[in-house]
Amino acid sequence: MDDKRLRLGIDLGGTKIEIVALDARGGLLLRRRIPTPQGDYRATLAAVASLVRAAEQELGAEGSVGIGTPGSISRATGLLRGCNSVCLNGQPLRRDLEGLLGREVRITNDANCFALSEASDGAAAGADVVFGAILGTGVGAGIVVRGRVLDGPNAIAGEWGHNPLPWPKDDERPGPPCFCGKSGCIETFVSGPGLEGDFLRATGARAKSPDIVARAASGETPCVRALERYEERLARALAHVINLLDPDVIVVGGGMSNIAQLYANVPQRWSAWVFSDRVDTRLLRNAHGDSSGVRGAAWLWGAG
Ligand SMILES: [Zn+2]
């Protein structure tokens, strides 16, 4: 392998900034984590730049820099938007970091980083078309085609969490209200709070999603039923993706990816909804866990 490039990946989150350095094969050379300066854009820029400089000094080499954030950069304006670290919104993050670091910087949202990490050297390594879905407090997703993030003119490729739950049953209409202003979004059913909301509506009782999963495993009927509804809804939501994109692999991250039975049960259920006599798409659990975002940021400087 003649690629000796050092890849630096940064996960710029609301509470922490993490950096990793990867060697050419994806081996981890360094990992550091600092708290995110709160409400201070200039201090956040300086923190990112100092992490990069310290990593390069320690490793004795200059690297490429990729950054994952919860928001996205508008192609039209170059400004960051939709970021939960609100002091970053409306700021020319890429231009400012490029000025500080003296090199081109690549930035994408954390769901794209997740998909890219798993497609590069994770659960979906070697797959042509990868749909990476994060099922956690919210629902995000990204698409990677032959090692590259699919990035459209609106920078929202893969974001199906605020599409409506497909083929809704009568009791799923109009569906729970969503923070985005609509009702019945996929996110309101297949996120962690989505499972908890369904359980509350069905039983009148509150429970956290890991508890519902654990109690289902021990055979508690209301929890078993809630998980069955969850699997059925996820199957419909992903059948929609398969019909549109026909990915080789769908890889799942976020807290709900820890539900082991999803990987056998959801593909059994999605066949009923996919417009094909057989479905060869594989549903896989992520390989890199919580590190996927920061690793994917590093892989923004991929094979090209
Ligand atoms: Zn929504």
From the spread of the alpha carbons, the general shape counts as globular
Q: Give the amount of beta strand, in percent.
A: 15-25%
SSE series: EEEHEEEHEHEEEHHHHEHEH
N- and C-termini, Cα separation: 14 Å
**Largest β sheet strand count, sense and barrel closure:** 5 strands, mixed
Mean pLDDT: 94
Helix content: 25-40%
- Estimated structural class: alpha/beta
Taking pLDDT < 50 over at least 5 consecutive residues as the criterion, the unreliable ranges are: none
Small-molecule binders here are:
zinc ion
Number of strands: 12
Radius of gyration based on Cα positions: 20 Å
Strand order of the largest sheet: 3-2-1-4-7
Number of helices: 9
Reconstruct the topology from this structure.
Elements: E1 6-12, E2 16-22, E3 28-35, H1 41-59, E4 63-69, E5 72-73, E6 80-81, H2 93-101, E7 105-109, H3 110-121, E8 129-135, E9 139-145, E10 148-149, H4 187-190, H5 192-203, H6 209-217, H7 221-245, E11 249-253, H8 262-270, E12 282-285, H9 292-298
Parallel strand pairs: 1-4, 4-7, 8-11, 11-12
Antiparallel strand pairs: 1-2, 2-3, 5-6, 8-9, 9-10
Bound molecules: zinc ion.
Residues 162, 178, 180, 182, 185, 187 line the site of zinc ion.
